[in-house]
Description:
- The chain is α+β, with helices and mostly antiparallel strands.
- Helices cover 29% and strands 18% of the residues.
- A two-stranded parallel ribbon has the order 1-2. It has a two-stranded antiparallel ribbon with strand order 3-4.
- Residues 1-8 have low confidence and may be disordered.
Amino acid sequence: MPPPHRPPAPRSHTPGRTLEKALANGRTAVKGQGGTFPVAFDPKYATGGAYHNGYWPASYYVDKTGHIRHTSIGEGDYNGQEQVIRQLLSEPTATGN
């Protein structure tokens, strides 16, 4: 979980093991870890398929207009990913933020 000073980001979980493909198990896992943020459950790999993603893990950062502005493939570069998030959050919306 992120540190308390940073709001948690919504997550998407694509199960890799059979046990993870049951929605009830996913809910139990999120609750057991103290999750208080939305988690999209994707047991049919529709999200990764829509992006033609063949990587694990992969993170897609989408701006307020719905355009993918950054993609991160694999582990690491967490500071760079945080900079992208901060930049996207600081940008005004069409209505002026």
